[in-house]
């Protein structure tokens, strides 16, 4: 039993989005398909993540799946088209945007999770499979229930994720193990996942939320800006120019708070030449 009072933050169809004590929780709520995501699910998750990012009261985000059977089983294979995913409820041959050419909606979600300045914690019960496994890999931390099972199934079902699904997995478990996971499509227990560095902790199923909330509360005690910069720093070299851009813009954010930067701004507003002579040329 968790001593936290979740309150609905925004209403959605495929997900639940709740908040409490500075924690935002996104729950994929499609247990009838083991929490597989369709394009609408992904768009709702994007909207919730955007809200959690912008809410100054939120410091940590939890991603989880409804029920004990699955965190997420990946893309909903019932709406998989010949070119991505097609899921306009009024016309299953079209995407929600109206095009009859499908798209991979999760690409943007992956980037959003990666760039989100707040830690994202996966709470995994049951299966984290396929595109669902990639979602937990992209979370900053993963707490697993003892019934969790992890695996990639792409080569079994005619799919693969050579993006973050391969590169970040390699960072976590090493290239040999990452290739084993993708090439053989085996399932791994929570204990095996812990041993290979794929998850941070394994707890009894009934304690999953309690433990996840405890980790979140601990992070909420830490400096939010330090956590934001740490996350960006961890990703900087892996994400190339995009990673450098994030760190550089964060540095500019800090620079804006300095007298030196303010002299430039004030001089422009006051229509005078800026005087930077009093500022040190730092070695
Ligand atoms: C997850 C299982 C191992 C769970 O097994 P089990 O507990 O025995 O339950 P089942 O009886 O199999 O399933 C119950 C029920 O759910 C339906 N279901 C389960 N998963 C899916 C799914 N992914 N899509 C649709 N429906 C699903 C299942 O059919 C049952 O329904 P019934 O009506 O009762 O028959 C097992 O269920 C399983 O193996 N599931 C399939 C896993 C899978 O193949 N996932 C897709 C992998 S490919 C993928 O995820 C896309 C990759 C991707 O996201 C991506 C990658 C790179 C770029 C872009 C993208 C992108 O946008 O998609």
Automatic annotation (TrEMBL):
Biological or metabolic pathway of the protein: Quinol/quinone metabolism; menaquinone biosynthesis; Quinol/quinone metabolism; 1,4-dihydroxy-2-naphthoate biosynthesis; 1,4-dihydroxy-2-naphthoate from chorismate: step 6/7
Enzyme Commission number: 4.1.3.36
UniProt region (Disordered), positions on chain: 82-101, 261-283
Site-annotated residues for Important for catalysis: 85, 256
Binding positions for substrate per the UniProt entry: 34, 73-77, 85, 127-131, 159, 256, 271
Any GO BP: menaquinone biosynthetic process
GO cellular component terms, A-Z: cytosol
Protein name (Swiss-Prot/TrEMBL): 1,4-dihydroxy-2-naphthoyl-CoA synthase
Organism in which the protein naturally occurs: Rubrobacter radiotolerans
């Amino acid at each position: 039993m968790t001593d936290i009072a979740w309150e609905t933050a925004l209403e959605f169809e495929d997900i639940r989005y709740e908040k409490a004590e500075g924690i935002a929780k996104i729950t994929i709520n499609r247990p009838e398909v083991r929490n597989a995501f369709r394009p609408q699910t992904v768009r709702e998750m994007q909207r919730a993540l955007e809200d959690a990012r912008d809410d100054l009261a939120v410091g940590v985000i939890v991603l989880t799946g409804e029920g004990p059977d699955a965190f997420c089983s990946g893309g909903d294979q019932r709406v998989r088209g010949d070119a991505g995913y097609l899921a306009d409820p009024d016309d299953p041959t079209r995407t929600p945007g109206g095009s009859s050419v499908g798209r991979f909606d999760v690409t943007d979600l992956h980037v959003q999770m990666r760039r989100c300045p707040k830690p994202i914690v996966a709470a995994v019960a049951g299966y984290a499979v396929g595109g669902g496994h990639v979602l937990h890999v992209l979370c900053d931390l993963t707490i697993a229930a003892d019934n969790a099972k992890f695996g990639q199934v792409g080569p079994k079902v005619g799919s693969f994720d050579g993006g973050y699904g391969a590169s970040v997995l390699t960072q976590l478990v090493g290239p040999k193990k990452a290739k084993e996971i993708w090439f053989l499509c085996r399932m791994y227990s929570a204990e095996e996942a812990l041993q290979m560095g794929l998850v941070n902790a394994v707890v009894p199923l009934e304690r999953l939320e309690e433990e996840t909330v405890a980790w979140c509360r601990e992070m909420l005690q830490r400096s939010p800006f330090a956590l934001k910069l740490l996350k960006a720093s961890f990703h900087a070299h892996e994400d190339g120019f995009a990673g450098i851009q994030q760190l550089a813009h964060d540095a500019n954010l800090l620079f804006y708070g300095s007298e030196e930067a303010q002299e430039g701004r004030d001089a422009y507003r006051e229509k005078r030449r800026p005087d930077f002579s009093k500022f040190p040329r730092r070695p």
